Amino acid sequence: MTKRSLLAVAIATLGIQSAQAAPFLPMDARGLAMGNTGVASAQRAHAPAYNPSLLSQASEDDDFALLFPQVGVNLADEEELIDEAELISDEIFPDFEAAIDGAMGVSEGLDQNLNDLANAVDALVLELNQAAPDPATVQSLNSAVRDQFTDVNSDLTITGNAVNDLTDSLNRISGNPLSARLGVGGALAIPSKTFAAAVSISGSANISAKVNFSERDLSLLDSYVPAAQAYLQQADTTTEAIDAAFQSGAPDATTLQNLQDQVNALQGFDYVTDNGTTIIQDGQFTDDASDANLTSTAEVVAVAIVDLGVSFSREFDFAGEKVAIGLTPKLQKITTYHYADEVDGFDEVDEDSLEDSKEEYSKVNLDIGASYRFGSEGNWVAGLVGKNLLGGEFDYADVVVTPKDSNGDPDPLQPAYSIDGGSVNLNPQFRAGIAYQSSWVNVALDVDLTENDPIAFESATQYAAIGAEFDLFSTLQLRAGYRTNMSTTNADMVSVGLGLSPFGIHLDIAAMANPSDPEKEAGVALETGFYF
After folding, report:
1. Which residues, if any, are the signal sequence (predicted)?
2. Beta strand 476-485 with 493-500: parallel, antiparallel or unpaired?
3. Is the overall model pTM greater than 0.85, yes or no?
4. DSSP state of 427
5. Angle, CA of 308, 311 and 314, to the nearest 5°
6. Which CATH superfamily hosts domain 26-78+178-211+294-531?
7. Tell me: the pLDDT tens digits for 324-380?
8. Does domain 85-170+217-289 match CATH 1.20.1420?
């Protein structure tokens, strides 16, 4: 029967090797808890990730800060692929298997009943091809064929419903991305109004993956019932002709020859799909049908980005107004991978093929930010930042897919084929923000000014976010936030977080999730730091 690795393995693999677009999404715990805000509200060591000019918005009492490590992960299942895949694997696919293969103590299944029908036809053929077939024996054998005909016909409704449920689910799941992003980082910052500096390092694993169920596989699944119906129709016509011919004894030689031709044709009945797959041969399911070699593929585009940046910031006087300007020149290392395989063979990734697809790039890039503190008590901050202003385009290689046989081994009869590579664009990103800050509360609003393209298969992102932090006795921080993606629907996120900061030691944790369906997207982050 069709291998369950078609679903279970592909789903499990993508659950690990999941993907996310390349949004403006630093993975720090404080910012994530506040809805991923920070362009006007980031503090000291967080400033390089959001807006380097904020290094010059610290108070005069602030000294250097160390942030290490930062770890965060974000998982997004945009079209609820995991739920649908689990439903297929746990319920829909077993129902399909039971319809074809049978269920213990319940039914023999379409495959076995079709084989029994073919065996009954063989016995009828053997008798009819005798020089003088016995009418009583022919009628008895013809009746046995019609009994088996009834068994097969009763299976078709069950099989049809199972096939419809499975193909509907496969169509829903095909092409949908499963998304995630893993980020790590750290920073050392020395804030100052006159000359601030920071060194930061960050790395992100961005992997974009999808499963494409091929037209051949869907055509195969859709062919079970039509193939069996065509066979039954021919069997019905043949057995009715035999009943009519033998009702009054042995038929004449011409009629007998016609009946022999019909029953021989029934014995050799074949059914071939439009794409050339043989479903029934000589009245029985072929290996392609009963133990299908599926050609659907899982494809992964992966990009790892490591940034090493040095930030500088200074406050300038413009017509009596203090404006901080900061910049972060950074060295980037970008590595791309492209991997694909038929889902039946995706349980073991070919590490050599993955390594062969690796492309490595080094690039210099630049972030520039500005911030302005205003209000009667200087509690308000407006910020603007442009990241990756020098852009970049990075290719990922073509990938070769080797077809597998029913055992999951390379099929010598099927030629390998290639899936074209492409490129990942690291385009400039722009975000504006405004924040209110006091000794016990901080409120921030950030908006992406441009839409950020995905790596490969996911939705584009353009975020708007709001967040708040309540600081209790400079020791306990309670945070909450809200973020929406203006480029797509039903992509809202709520977040919460907690910070502990006794004696300048900071421990921050955060979690976020889609409020209508937490399985649609969720994320967590953890970091430690030292503020002096």
Report:
1. 1-21
2. antiparallel
3. no
4. -
5. 175
6. Outer membrane protein transport protein (OMPP1/FadL/TodX) (2.40.160.60)
7. 999 999 999 999 989 888 765 555 667 788 888 999 999 999 999 999 999 999 999
8. yes
